[in-house]
């Protein structure tokens, strides 16, 4: 990327920020960091990037879009941030999100909702929780952005804003420095318009990190790359669980065109069923709030973060005055998480969800041809290379719709994640790309655990560059 | 003196111990900060890294030296090492616990079973031999320290001790008298020093003892805040007398049917809380720490490096 | 039980079969369209159906909600308990689908973690190597010369963190 281009992007940010509320923090000195040395041999030289504000940075605050972490300065950089800096990327700011990553609309932020750049005359949600990262890319404020995907939080906003959103296999990109929401699921993801940029960024970040106990080991990485086979046509499964009769007309036509394109490229398409997929949402909303309630127990204001002026007890509850700074959506999930973890319910909810999660993983193992190095599955001899679905099947809604007083139920919002959570539960690599350029509907392509290259290779056959 | 304290035959004493032992590994349990909770006492929060403070975005990294030390201790007690144990989270809010939970082992502890044998000739007990059975050993994090400063009406928090590795050892309720308890504590203290896994000092808090006690199978009482051997002995004596008085007054049904936790003030035991009102700890397997999966050769090899145990040396089983 | 014959039928997903299946290859676009656009019970419908039984739902009691607030370290005194009761009951009904799901076979819940299930036991050599490594590992010690552990705290006294109360007395 040229230094001129980088400068132009950086200069456009204040105006875009005013329109879409993309950032929680903008680095005013970003322009000074542009690399002018033409011989600079760095992979990501002068590519501008937004970093989701739940990933810690040394030189910019990290807030999780929460009052409880307002102005928090981390003494260290997340590993993914460090790798980007070392590769020459220009970090221009921290991007807005649903508080602590909890939400799929980008409206639950202390800094206010993110607006979808695809809809200039209307306040439409950008999807969440990586709403700001999606909007930054969609509005051309940055070349790429990092998000986090716990149950679809990169893929869904990518679909809503008609860009690419890639969630690699769990453990590929270090989580060190990513503020945990539910770390058995949390995955750093990459958003961009240009697939070649996305691939370059992934190449930089796809490294073992000894600081992350869940990082994919070097031995397994070596085994995985030895297993990779390049192809020009793929065996693709279409899960029945993911399609419904009520697809809107706006989706039917482009979807038919897309399927036609797949057939013309010579791919083999199959109907496929993984019965446990239909439990994905309840599994997800059992496990993720339970982990969240545990992970967010550390926010008490004692060692860092916002501290209540009033004191440290409320009616005998330690830290309640400070912890009341969490927004309503976060509080609701903490309460649900504690309901799940309570000794009376633990076995029937948490353990049951874990067991069903195992079943789902095992079902995927019976569908894919690629072996699963985590489970020991050798792969199905006549199995599939990929599964394909939509990322979302309906137009993103107006921001107003998610106004807390109007939303009839918190679970209504959960349903946005119905197509994206199965891949999170099994840790599968998955990418969302626009069904058609400029359309806020995404196609989701997912592969077996560890088979990230197949997902990206196949994507390059199917996606016309989003970049104009 | 202990010798004068004799449990009465009609009031049968049953005791078990819970002993927390700090392991003197070089680094803390889940971080690379220096494990030195004592010498740094003058400088609070000195030996703390990002993880010890539970900074956002940090992750635990298991220190296998703690596993080695715990394995030595387990083997010396003939305890069965679990080749696939795991860490769990125990949730409660407290000022000296930065994560909001303690990382411990609840569902699948490090070792179970085993015993420590007390012998008349060596350990000065009345019985010829007394075996104290071990229930289990679990590895967990220590908490920080809280100091109340009255003049300012504030509690001060020092996290130098936070995340120091501990082994919690639980015995079966096999103790019948004070001599056995005293002998066990001395023998166990010797053992950890001999193995080089802990200083075993009660005074510094490197070893901390809680007592579970019941008389004539009434509800169990847990005694806490026992800083040294004499307070352990005196607290048991006091509690024994207290319960006997209750029984003699015919109030056992009313006052001894519920488990409770009592603290030692130096001269008497006082009720701290009812067991049943104890908060729900909401145990959950830690979602990011790996299971402690060891192949059997780890145990056989550690066994080979073990020094002869103190009793073996004393009894001349091993030529010096 | 034959699954294949009903794969393309309307009702296959009403009963919970645990057998994943790849059906016969699509031969034409029309066949795919028929498959995708046909009325069928989708995952979304499945959830909606179970939620429509919400009348039978129990609203958690006020005491239960207060207890959960306290366990969550959240205020219970000034909290909008009714709002929490309402939202919690909906959330519980949503995840309760799992309670009514029969698991016919033995499943090891420990396999839910996305880490290697087998062959991860450390050999003695590897075990000792990790110990040696940990001792030397100052380079990832997470401490930086300039970092002061209490510098980010809103309240600090003589390098201690501070709680504005006697927590020792309040410990329960």
TrEMBL record, chain A:
The record's annotation in Pfam families points to: Amidase
Protein localization: Mitochondrion
Q: Which residues form the active site?
A: 52 (charge relay system), 129 (charge relay system), 153 (acyl-ester intermediate)
Residues forming coiled coils: none
Amidase domain residues are 27-456
Q: Which branch of life, at top level?
A: Eukaryota
Question: Which reactions fall under this protein's catalytic activity?
Answer: L-glutamyl-tRNA(Gln) + L-glutamine + ATP + H2O = L-glutaminyl-tRNA(Gln) + L-glutamate + ADP + phosphate + H(+)
The EC designation for this entry is 6.3.5.7
The molecule here is called: Glutamyl-tRNA(Gln) amidotransferase subunit A, mitochondrial
Recall the taxonomic lineage recorded for the source organism.
Answer: Eukaryota, Fungi, Dikarya, Ascomycota, Saccharomycotina
Gene it is expressed from: HER2
UniProtKB/TrEMBL annotation, chain C:
What GO MF terms are annotated?
A: ATP binding; glutaminyl-tRNA synthase (glutamine-hydrolyzing) activity
Where found, per UniProt?
A: Mitochondrion inner membrane
Catalyses: L-glutamyl-tRNA(Gln) + L-glutamine + ATP + H2O = L-glutaminyl-tRNA(Gln) + L-glutamate + ADP + phosphate + H(+)
Q: ATP-binding: present as a keyword of the record?
A: yes
GO terms in the biological process aspect are: glutaminyl-tRNAGln biosynthesis via transamidation; mitochondrial translation
**Membrane-topology descriptor:** Peripheral membrane protein
Query: Which controlled-vocabulary keywords does the entry list?
Result: ATP-binding, Ligase, Membrane, Mitochondrion, Mitochondrion inner membrane, Nucleotide-binding, Protein biosynthesis
Pfam families membership: GatF
Would you identify the family this protein belongs to, as annotated?
Belongs to the GatF family.
Q: Identify the EC number(s).
A: 6.3.5.-
Which InterPro entries does the protein's record reference?
Answer: GatF
Gene Ontology cellular component list:
glutamyl-tRNA(Gln) amidotransferase complex; mitochondrial inner membrane
- Could you name the domain of life of the organism this protein comes from? Eukaryota
Signal peptide stretch: none
The name of this protein is Glutamyl-tRNA(Gln) amidotransferase subunit F, mitochondrial
Q: What lineage is this protein's organism placed in?
A: Eukaryota, Fungi, Dikarya, Ascomycota, Saccharomycotina
Sum up the protein's function in the record's words.
Allows the formation of correctly charged Gln-tRNA(Gln) through the transamidation of misacylated Glu-tRNA(Gln) in the mitochondria. The reaction takes place in the presence of glutamine and ATP through an activated gamma-phospho-Glu-tRNA(Gln). Required for proper protein synthesis within the mitochondrion.
Q: How does it assemble?
A: Subunit of the heterotrimeric GatFAB amidotransferase (AdT) complex, composed of A, B and F subunits.
Keyword Transferase in the entry? The reply is no
């Amino acid at each position: 990327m040229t230094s001129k281009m980088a400068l132009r992007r950086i200069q456009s940010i204040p105006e875009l920020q005013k329109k879409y509320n993309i950032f929680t923090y903008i680095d005013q000195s970003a322009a000074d960091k542009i690399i002018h040395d033409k011989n600079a041999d760095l992979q990501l030289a002068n590519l501008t990037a937004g970093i989701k504000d739940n990933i810690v940075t040394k030189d910019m605050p990290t807030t999780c879009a929460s009052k409880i972490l307002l102005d928090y300065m981390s003494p260290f950089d997340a590993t993914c941030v460090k790798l980007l800096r070392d590769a020459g990327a220009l970090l221009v700011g921290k991007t807005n999100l649903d508080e602590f990553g909890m939400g799929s609309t980008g409206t639950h932020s202390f800094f206010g909702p993110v607006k979808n750049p695809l809809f200039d005359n209307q306040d439409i949600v950008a999807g969440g929780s990586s709403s700001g990262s999606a909007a930054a890319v969609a509005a051309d404020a940055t070349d790429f952005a990092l998000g986090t995907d716990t149950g679809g939080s990169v893929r869904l906003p990518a679909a809503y804003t008609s860009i690419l959103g890639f969630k690699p296999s769990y453990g590929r990109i270090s989580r060190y420095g990513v503020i945990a929401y539910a770390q058995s699921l949390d995955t750093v993801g990459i958003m961009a318009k240009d697939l070649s940029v996305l691939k370059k960024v992934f190449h930089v970040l796809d490294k073992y990190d000894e600081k992350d106990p869940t990082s994919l080991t070097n031995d397994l990485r070596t085994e995985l790359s030895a297993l990779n086979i390049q192809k020009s046509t793929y065996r693709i499964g279409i899960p029945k669980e993911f399609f419904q009769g009520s697809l809107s007309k706006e989706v039917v036509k482009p979807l038919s065109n897309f399927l036609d394109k797949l057939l013309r490229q010579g791919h083999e398409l199959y109907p496929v069923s993984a019965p446990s997929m239909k439990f994905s949402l309840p599994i997800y909303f059992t496990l993720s709030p339970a982990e969240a309630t545990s992970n967010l127990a550390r926010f008490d204001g004692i060692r860092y973060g916002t501290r209540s002026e009033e004191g440290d007890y409320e009616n005998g509850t330690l830290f309640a005055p400070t912890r009341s700074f969490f927004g309503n959506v976060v509080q609701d999930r903490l309460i649900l998480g504690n309901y799940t973890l309570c000794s009376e319910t633990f076995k029937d909810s948490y353990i049951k969800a874990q067991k069903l999660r195992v079943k789902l993983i095992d079902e995927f193992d019976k569908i894919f041809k690629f072996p699963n190095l985590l489970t020991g599955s050798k792969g199905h001899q006549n199995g599939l290379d990929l599964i394909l679905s939509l990322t979302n099947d309906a137009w993103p809604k107006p921001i107003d719709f998610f106004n807390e007083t109007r939303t009839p139920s918190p679970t209504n919002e959960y349903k946005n994640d119905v197509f994206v959570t199965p891949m999170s539960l099994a840790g599968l690599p998955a990418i969302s790309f626009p069904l058609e350029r400029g359309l806020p509907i995404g196609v989701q392509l997912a592969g077996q655990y560890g088979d990230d290259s197949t997902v990206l290779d196949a994507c390059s056959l199917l996606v016309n560059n989003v970049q104009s | 003196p202990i010798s004068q304290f004799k449990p009465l035959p009609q009031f049968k004493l049953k005791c078990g111990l819970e002993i927390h032992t700090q392991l003197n590994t070089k680094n803390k349990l889940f971080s690379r900060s220096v494990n030195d909770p004592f010498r740094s006492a003058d400088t609070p929060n000195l030996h703390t890294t990002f993880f010890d403070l539970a900074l956002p975005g940090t992750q635990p990294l298991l220190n296998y030296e703690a596993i080695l030390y715990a394995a030595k201790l387990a083997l010396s007690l003939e305890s069965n090492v679990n080749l696939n144990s795991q860490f769990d989270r125990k949730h409660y809010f407290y000022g000296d616990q930065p994560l909001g939970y303690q990382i411990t082992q609840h569902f699948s502890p490090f070792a179970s079973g085993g015993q420590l044998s007390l012998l008349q000739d060596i350990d000065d007990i009345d019985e010829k031999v007394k075996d104290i059975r071990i229930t289990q050993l679990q590895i967990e994090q220590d908490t920080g320290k809280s100091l109340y400063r009255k003049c300012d009406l504030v509690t001060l928090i020092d996290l130098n001790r936070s995340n120091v590795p501990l082994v919690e050892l639980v015995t079966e309720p096999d103790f019948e008298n004070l001599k056995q308890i005293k002998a066990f504590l001395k023998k166990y203290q010797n053992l950890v020093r001999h193995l080089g896994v802990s200083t075993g000092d009660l005074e510094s808090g490197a070893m901390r003892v809680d007592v579970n006690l019941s008389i004539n199978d009434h509800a169990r009482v847990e005694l806490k805040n026992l800083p040294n051997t004499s307070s352990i002995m005196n607290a048991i004596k006091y509690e024994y007398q207290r319960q006997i008085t209750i029984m003699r007054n015919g109030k056992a049904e009313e006052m001894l049917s519920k488990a409770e936790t009592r603290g030692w003030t130096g001269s008497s035991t006082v009720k701290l809380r009812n067991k049943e009102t104890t908060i729900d700890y909401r145990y959950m397997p830690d979602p990011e720490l790996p299971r402690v999966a060891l192949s059997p050769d780890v145990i056989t090899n550690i066994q080979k490096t073990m020094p002869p145990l103190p009793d073996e040396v004393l009894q001349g089983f091993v030529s010096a | 039980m034959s699954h294949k014959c009903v794969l393309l039928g309307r009702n296959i997903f009403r009963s919970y079969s645990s057998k994943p299946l790849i059906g016969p290859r699509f031969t034409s676009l029309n066949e795919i369209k028929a498959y995708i656009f046909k009325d069928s019970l989708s995952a979304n419908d499945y959830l909606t159906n179970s939620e429509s039984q919400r009348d039978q739902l129990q609203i958690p009691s006020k005491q239960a909600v207060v207890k959960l607030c306290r366990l969550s370290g959240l205020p219970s005194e000034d909290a909008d308990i009714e709002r929490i009761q309402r939202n919690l009951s909906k959330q519980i009904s949503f995840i309760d689908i799992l309670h009514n799901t029969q698991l016919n076979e033995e499943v090891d819940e420990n396999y839910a973690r996305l880490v290697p299930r087998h062959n991860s036991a450390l050999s003695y050599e590897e075990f000792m190597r990790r110990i040696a490594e940990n001792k030397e590992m100052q380079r990832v010690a997470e401490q930086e010369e300039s970092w002061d552990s209490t510098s980010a705290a809103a309240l600090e006294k003589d390098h201690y963190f501070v709680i504005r109360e006697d927590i020792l007395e309040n410990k329960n």
